[in-house]
Write a structure and sequence with these properties.
globular
Length: 169
Amino acid sequence: MCMTDEQFAQLYHRHVDRVYRVCFMLLQHAADAEDAVQTVFIKLMQSGTTFTDDEHEKAWLIRTARNHCLNLLSHWWRRKRVGMDGLSEPAAPHGESQRDLWKLVLDLPAKYKTVVYLFYYEGYSAREISRMLNMNESTVRSQLHTARKLLKIEMEGNPYAVRRTESGH
């Protein structure tokens, strides 16, 4: 059964912000994230996938967005590009210490960003993330553990960030 235009539009409006945040977190460039979001929803239209519930929709879209962005990041053209300073960022947590932490999360290796984002910013459990990303739950927990260690190392390198982050969380 195919989705009607109205059903697709509703699904799009329910999930576009989430898909954009996942794409931006991985690609760290607004225009690239917007292109990736468009591609993810085109893939959805072309796939003819039917969903059992809202969680199935979210999982499919997040997994597809993550896989698409990781493919883009591994492409030879992406590795040759030079980063630009002053890029806009999506609605990140409010407050200076939260923005500092968000920047540290964005600097994590790509394989850790998605699980950290889904766990801490979207509120999913390790089990839910494992189902969404089609990974072992132990892999998700391991990636979260490693990401926390990396964030701790970065924050210890900047005592001011540690002090502010500890008071904020």
